Structures are given as C-alpha cells and as structure tokens.
Amino acid sequence: xxxxxxxxxxxxxxxxxxxxxxxxxxxxxxxxxxxxxxxxxxxxxxxxxxxxxxxxxxxxxxxxxxxxxxxxxxxxxxxxxxxxxxxxxxxxxxxxxxxxxxxxxxxxxxxxxxxxxxxxxxxxxxxxxxxxxxxxxxxxxxxxxxxxxxxxxxxxxxxxxxxxxxxxxxxxxxxxxxxxxxxxxxxxxxxxxxxxxxxxxxxxxxxxxxxxxxxxxxxxxxxxxxxxxxxxxxxxxxxxxxxxxxxxxxxxxxxxxxxxxxxxxxxxxxxxxxxxxxxxxxx
Amino acid sequence: xxxxxxxxxxxxxxxxxxxxxxxxxxxxxxxxxxxxxxxxxxxxxxxxxxxxxxxxxxxxxxxxxxxxxxxxxxxxxxxxxxxxxxxxxxxxxxxxxxxxxxxxxxxxxxxxxxxxxxxxxxxxxxxxxxxxxxxxxxxxxxxxxxxxxxxxxxxxxxxxxxxxxxxxxxxxxxxxxxxxxxxxxxxxxxxxxxxxxxxxxxxxxxxxxxxxxxxxxxxxxxxxxxxxxxxxxxxxxxxxxxxxxxxxxxxxxxxxxxxxxxxxxxxxxxxxxxxxxxxxxxxxxxxxxx
Lengths: 283, 290
Description:
The complex is a heterodimer. Chain A has 10 helices and no strands. By secondary structure, chain A is mainly α. Chain A is elongated, with a radius of gyration of 23 Å. Chain A starts with 13 loop residues before the first helix and ends in a 5-residue tail after the last helix. The longest helix of chain B has 20 residues, at about 270-290. Chain B is globular, with a radius of gyration of 20 Å.
C-alpha cells in the first residue's frame, strides 16, 4: 500500500508553537492573576500617576510597566484584563460556534424548507449593521460581561451558519454520502457521522477566528464605554484611557494594544495551525 | 418472477414534465450480470439511483414499480425501504476518490453496515473486513484497515469499495461505471476483480457503463438506453451477433477497433439519431395521452 505519507509526522509548525505558547501564557496569567500581579489593579495613588516603565529613568521600583494617570499599575491591570478577555473569547466564541454551526449543518445537509427558513433568516440578520446592533443591544439589556457575550453571539452566529452550510452542502454531494444512504443509515446518522467530521476542521478554524474577534469586540465596546464598568480592568478600557494621555504616557496605550494584537493574532494562527496538523485530508 | 424486476419506471425533474427515464422495464435474474449501456445523460446511472433510493433531491419517481425479491420497493415506507435496501443491495460508485469518507478510517467504513444492519459484534465485523480485503488482493490488510483514504491509491480505494460492497453478502450490487475514474492498466484489474467476486458470491450485478467492450466481457445481458428510453434489451451473445435497433447497431459499429489503428472512428449517423429521437418523442406523446 503505501506511499509513505502515512508515516510522515508533520513537525509542529512555528505558528502552532508560537500561538499556543502566547495563549498559554495569557491563560496562565488569567488563572494566577492574584498571585502574579505585582500590585492591586484597582489601587489608585495620585502621587504615583503616569510613572514610566522600568527602563526609563524616574520610575518607582515595582511598577514594571508604569502607571496610568490615576496611579494604577499597568502590568497588574493587564494581567487582570486577561480574565475578561479570555472569558469573553471562550464563552462567546463557543456559544456562537455551537449555535451557528448547528444551524448551518442542518440547513446545508437537510436542505428543503429547513434550509429556506435558516438561510432567509441569516440573510435578514446580516442586513443589520453589526456595531450599531450591538450598541443598541447593550443599551437595552444594560452593560456587563453577560451583555457583551450575548451581543457577540447574537451578531456573529451568522458567520458560522453561512460557512458551515456551504461546507455541508459540498460534503453532502459526495459519493460517500450516497454509499452511507445505501447502507441504510438515516439522515441524522449521516449528518452526525459522515458530514460532521468533515466540516469539523472548518469549524475549528472559524471558532479560533471567532475567539479573536470576540476579544476585539469586547475591546471596541470598552472603548465606547459600553463594556464592563470603567474601574474593572479590561484591555479595551485601558486602550481608551491611554488614548487620552498618549502624549504624556504612551505606555498606558501601547502595552495593552500589543497584548490585544498578539492575542487576536495567536487565536487565528492557532486555528490554521490545528487545521494543518490534524485535518487528515491536508496531512 | 425475476429477482429484480423494473416495471414501467419513469422519473422526472420535480415540477417539470420532462422525463429522465421513460417507462423503463427490464428484469434481472438472481446471480445475473446485466449491463446498462448508453451515452452520457441517457439515464443509465439514474436507474441505479432509483433502485437504491438515492435519486438527487430535484428528481422524483413519477410512476412504476421496482420489485426486488418479491417486494415493490416504491410502496414501502421510507425507513423500511432503507433497511431492506441496506440488507440486500450495495453500490460500487464511480469515483473512488470521493466514495470513501476522507476523515474516517477504512475499517469503520467497511464494517458500518455489518454492525448497523446485520447487528454483528465489532470483533466479528473486523475479522470479516480483514478477510474481505485479503479477498480483493490487498496486501497487509490490517494496516489498510487503520489507514485513511488519502493514504491509498485510486485502484486500492476501488478495491476497498468492492470489498465493502460484498461485505454484507448483498443479493444485488449496482456498479456505477466502476472503472471510469481509473487509468487503463488499473481498469482491467478492477474489472477482472469485480467479475471474479461476482462469480464467487453469486450476486446479481447491474453494470452501468458506456463501454461495450466491457459489457461483452462481463455481462450476460444488457439494455441500451437513449434519452431515458430503452431501445434494446438482449442477451449479450445475441446483441453482439446481431443488434436489432439501428441506434444499438450504430453504437456497436462506433466502438474503436484497437486491432486496426488506421481505421477511422465511425460516429453514430445523424439519421439514426434523428430516428431515435423521434421514437423518444413518440413514446412521450403516447405516455401523455395514455
């Protein structure tokens, strides 16, 4: 049999190593925040306002990445900010994925009136401008972590539904589906056992992408002050604050921004990396 | 009654009155190899799909009966029909590249039916799968069972599909152009394998092809389709000695002669096509008014 492809184990690509390393670090920071944060993230000290990071002269020891205009430690706030960012990414991403992918799979494989209903619903849903939609939503249900999660789910499930539907349709036309039908398997059985494993790689990529998007949406909503209360440390909130004082204290803006950027990038690269490594078709 | 008896079967595109199969009738005995011949779009695959209940969603059966082993499949409720087809029929599909699920290992894809429909234990099904792979001359079957489809060549996958089709000892196998997607050297091996397996298991085989050369080697009887209309049904020996219908005669004359490379290809004459088309139209007219 065999060309040797079966035995070539692909090495873990750089993108998979780097992205999972960064996300692991972030996750560790979120879990261990009370023990590793050098200061209390909420403690203000107006005498220590706008201290620069440790390598610039004129700073106080212990404030490694400086302080914001209220004298709160930037590093500690960033560490605590990981908690909200990751909660939003994991919870909102998973729920969005579950709802969207399920509807997409049903529409794409079963077709018929189910497809018509779901697809028209998606079309109508996607016609709403998403940012306005989320602001409106949060204005109605009130700000808070829960509201952000709901807003993300409500806006983004259509992305999953669309892509998974197309993929399920393509898979449904394959001969192996006909063979399974001849072998006496019912429609739901075929959907779960034949189609689902083949759309899963796409779903994984979309899911990690969505987690990155969720982090960004949370930041955007913090930026327009619709996220969690302003005291609670979030990356978006810090970026919004830092913007006001960027000429006097660039570090308040730059560090959360870099963290946000790396996290979103890592999520999308993680998805691609996982697909490359575990999709048996590409392998 | 014959083992498989198709009576007056018509299918059409949903919501149109264009029939894709025009009152097709034929009989296949148990253990017989029956060829379905015709040019592309003649409806030969459609017959197989109608029997197996896997017509595309846009196509529906208008009328007719499909008697399999004494039961008209079209009158059965869907679930019962599915399990009956699953227990007694199997498909050898055209394209071995898409006929195996790319994300599942070979073993499970062969044993599914044994476990699901026949209720075998997994161990017994696995042992049977090993046996079958050996029977279709795959070396190192144990390793192939654990492999994914993309790790195997096209010819190998077609062998697996053949093994899988014979797994549950079906009484009828529909081979839908099983060699079309393979290259010529492999085609011959696969044909020989299908013929050998069929003879050993005594399965009735419906062989869909556009290659009359293949029919002459594998089949005992055949029918020729044009535009969904059966223009000729005959025993293979009689057909090759003296085809009756002008279209069938022209088709046979058009078969390339490999022994004489200098001979030019003979197309089916226009007059014959016009005549056959007229026959199709006449059949449609009679059907609408009858």
